[in-house]
Design brief:
794 residues, alpha+beta, 4-stranded mixed β-sheet, 36% helix
């Protein structure tokens, strides 16, 4: 195989040849077989049997000159993997004019795709570098081969696309039959069994998965979970450290609940996977394998991941990461905002104090030191309207002159959490005692009944949906009949105006856009009328206007006749004579011997009004189908409301009954307002007991003696709040929550402060019970230490 053309600058020197190959073997393995063999095979393809004379490393990778001095192999580019690194290096060397010709095996193996190959060939041509493909015997410097190259490139591209589509069809077929493609080596918690198909739980890794789900549902953030895992020395499945997004990825992985969602991603035009947002169908299989977490825990976590944070996008960022951002003021309608307050505490000391550092006497008196705690409160955004920029507390006169929401109160976040948990336990014990006769169950049945009756009963919805589906099927058949009739009108039998009208007015055929606005509306010719008549004067569809200008004009039903009248008695279906009526009981579109068909076969030209009528009928039928589909969608959504309410209610009852009856120390829970009425230092409403508090401060009262009867400080269940409670309205110290199953529940006691929880018992980190005797023990947050030298001292 000889080269077609010698470059002008290479007229008196050997033509420099570069060789490009894409094989599974790497270059180092080929080098072990000997570079002389590689050079010999390349030169034999070029000019027969030529012996290699020398191998050098300059200026590119190697040089080998044949005996005649006509060709010189200067470089071999051997791809080691699919990243095309050698191809890119070859193109860079071509830009530096390191060779004159490239020897490649085939067009399909040149570059990442046929499009990339053609682009590279054009780039090489600009640099006066040719490419010879040995399999197809094509030289890009040949004009004839250039045309052949275009054909082969298109064929290869089509072949490659068809092959990829076949692979995709096979994968989707496996998806449809419940056969996922999952690499368990990249997934925590599962391994393949000996058969290579069955999933088995890796208990060591499954412990990490359970820890992540349980910690998150107990209120721990993704960042905290990641820090704890890294602190414990637990690595990800890839052997790296944990991050918040890695934890969220585990929480969103449905496989830990025993399900598999297939085709989450699709291949884009660049063959890179992208998220499947509707480009292809998804396949979801439940109970595909053994689950690591139970279904209820999975549903609660998904509600937390999906609904975490405020729903109102106008809410300020300071509320992000909290669950009470959906509360609103019952007086002005404003949203509640979160603020951080601080307070000085007493009877506390740690290693940061002056005494701990050994500072005593006069030197200690020259300093003032104090400890303070920070806590979060919620207040109406309009409470201090007009004083937003002022720092510190407002005076009484400023409060009186304020234009804000004066009736709203400042609520402690701790009180909101405790009141919510006490409300849940009241609902739980009420349900355990009365069953479906309890208060919230009765409220649910009433709410469900109201929604059911407002929808006219779901039974009628099922009947309406069935009727709509039947009508859609009838209209679809009529649309096909009209399209068939319009296609039978031969363009050579139409007059020029008719062809123009038909090209404008005919409805799109199968596979084209069939929206009502797809085609321009075309009416009959001036002076021509269209009328429809059915048995006993009935309109084709009872109650519908069928005049030419009506927007709901559709095709007559079977058994109805169609008559057209034009100016001076001329029928628009024929330029010569009027059409005889169709036989009784036969639709003009279904009868084979109808007059329109006869007119088409007898007349030489057909007026434009025929195409206009048929095109308008098709548009109107498409409109009718779209209206039926929209009505069906609306009824289905309304039907889904009642089903969703019942599902949410059943799930709420399961989660409610799953609330623990014991604290983490193994003792039975004492719920304030149910088992006990208040604590040692405060009554049920949070009002302090001064006498007991005084005795405690004097040391005559031991709180540990009252620990068994103290109410428990309940950990806040964030998942219950986010899963079932959509919003809340605050009036004074009561929050009225609205659930996602239609029940409203009042939650009193939200006006308490930190001192209201003195006398409650709390489980420490080591699992022991202690009584809360100071307000800084309530939320357990970091205590601030402040030290300042007094003025006038040195």
């Amino acid at each position: 195989m000889k080269l077609t053309k010698r470059p002008a600058y290479a007229a008196h020197v050997p033509i420099r040849i570069a060789m490009y190959r894409r094989e599974t073997s790497c270059y180092s393995a080929q080098e072990e077989l000997g570079r002389e063999t590689l050079c010999r095979s390349a030169q034999e393809e070029l000019c027969g049997e030529i012996l290699c004379q020398s191998v050098q490393e300059e200026p590119c990778e190697m040089q080998a000159v044949d005996a005649a001095g006509e060709y010189m192999l200067v470089a071999v580019y051997q791809e080691e993997d699919s990243n095309l690194a050698q191809f890119d290096r070859m193109m860079a060397d071509a830009a530096r004019n390191c060779f004159d010709y490239i020897l490649a095996e085939s067009v399909s193996s040149f570059g990442g795709s046929t499009g990339a190959a053609l682009s590279a060939i054009r780039t090489l041509g600009v640099n006066h570098i040719g490419v010879m493909f040995s399999r197809e015997n094509i030289d890009t410097f040949s004009e004839e081969d250039q045309k052949l190259l275009d054909v082969i490139a298109a064929f290869e591209e089509k072949k490659h696309r068809e092959h990829a589509q076949a692979i995709h069809r096979a994968i989707r077929k496996n998806f449809a039959s419940g056969k996922p493609r999952v690499n368990l080596n990249r997934m925590l918690g599962y391994d393949f069994a000996e058969d290579g198909r069955t999933w088995i739980i890796n208990e060591e890794q499954a412990g990490t998965v359970r820890y992540i789900f349980n910690s998150f549902v107990e209120g721990m953030s993704a960042n905290q979970i990641a820090r704890n895992l890294n602190k414990a020395g637990v690595e990800t499945v890839a052997g790296s450290v944990w991050r918040a997004d890695t934890v969220i990825g585990v929480l969103r992985n449905e496989k830990y609940a025993g399900d598999v969602e297939m085709q989450k991603t699709v291949s884009a035009s660049s063959y890179m996977p992208v998220a499947n947002t509707g480009q292809a169908p998804k396949y979801y299989q439940t109970n595909h394998h053994a689950a690591i977490i139970d279904r209820d825990l999975w549903d609660r976590v998904q509600a937390m991941v999906r609904n975490f944070g405020p729903r109102n996008p106008q809410i300020k960022t300071r509320k992000s990461g909290t669950v009470f951002g959906r509360l609103t003021c019952g007086y002005c309608g404003g949203s509640l905002q979160r603020f951080g307050y601080s307070a000085v505490i007493e009877r506390y000391s740690d290693a940061r104090s002056l005494a701990a550092e050994g500072v005593t006497g006069e030197e200690a008196k020259s300093f003032s030191e104090q400890y303070a705690i920070s806590y979060s409160v919620w207040r109406c955004e309009n409470k201090y309207k007009g004083h937003e920029g002022k720092s510190g507390r407002l005076s009484q006169s400023e409060l009186a002159a304020s234009e804000g929401c004066r009736d709203s109160r400042i609520l402690h976040e701790t009180a909101l959490e405790q009141s919510f948990m006490e409300m849940l336990y009241r609902m739980k014990y009420d349900y355990q005692k009365k069953g479906e006769k309890c208060t919230f169950a009765c409220d649910f049945r009433k709410a469900y009944s109201d929604v059911y009756e407002s929808l006219g009963g779901t039974g009628s919805h099922f009947l309406q949906i069935d009727a709509l589906e039947e009508r859609i099927g009838t209209l679809t058949g009529q649309l096909a009949a009209v399209r068939s009739r319009l296609e039978k009108i031969s363009p050579d039998k139409m007059s020029q105006p008719a062809r123009e009208e038909a090209s404008k007015g005919r409805s799109p055929l199968a596979g084209e856009n069939t929206t009502p606005s797809a085609s321009k509306e075309i009416l009959p010719l001036a002076g021509e009328n269209v009328s429809f008549s059915g048995p006993k004067g009935r309109s084709p569809l009872a109650g519908e206007n069928t005049t030419p200008s009506a927007s709901k004009e559709i095709l007559p039903l079977a058994g109805e006749n169609v008559s057209f009248s034009g100016p001076k008695g001329r029928s628009p279906l024929s330029a010569e004579s009027a059409s005889p009526p169709a036989s009784k009981g036969t639709s003009p579109l279904t009868a084979e011997n109808t007059s329109p068909s006869a007119s088409e076969s007898q007349s030489e030209t057909v007026p434009a009004s025929v195409a206009s009528v048929y095109a308008k009928l098709m548009r109107d039928i498409n409109t009718k189908i779209a209206e039926c589909e929209e009505e069906k969608k609306k009824l289905t959504e309304e039907l889904t409301v009642t089903l969703t309410m019942k599902q949410n209610y059943d799930f709420f009852v399961r989660c409610l009954l799953a609330l623990p009856d014991q604290n983490k120390a193994g003792r039975r829970l004492n719920i304030n307002g149910i088992h006990v009425q208040g604590s040692l230092f405060a009554d049920y409403d949070g009002k302090g007991k001064e006498e007991e508090r005084k005795q405690y401060l004097e040391g005559s009262l031991n709180p540990e003696d009252y620990l068994a009867d103290a109410p428990d400080f309940l950990p806040f269940d964030k998942s219950m709040f986010l899963t079932f409670f959509s919003r809340g309205v605050v009036r004074k110290d009561v929050v009225e929550y609205t659930t996602n199953f239609g029940v409203r529940v009042e939650c009193p006691g939200c006006g308490r402060n930190l001192n209201s929880f003195l006398g409650f018992r709390k489980v420490t980190e080591d699992g022991n019970l202690e009584m809360i005797t100071e307000n800084w023990q309530v939320n357990g947050r970091q205590i601030q230490y402040r030290r300042k030298r007094k003025s006038g001292t040195r």
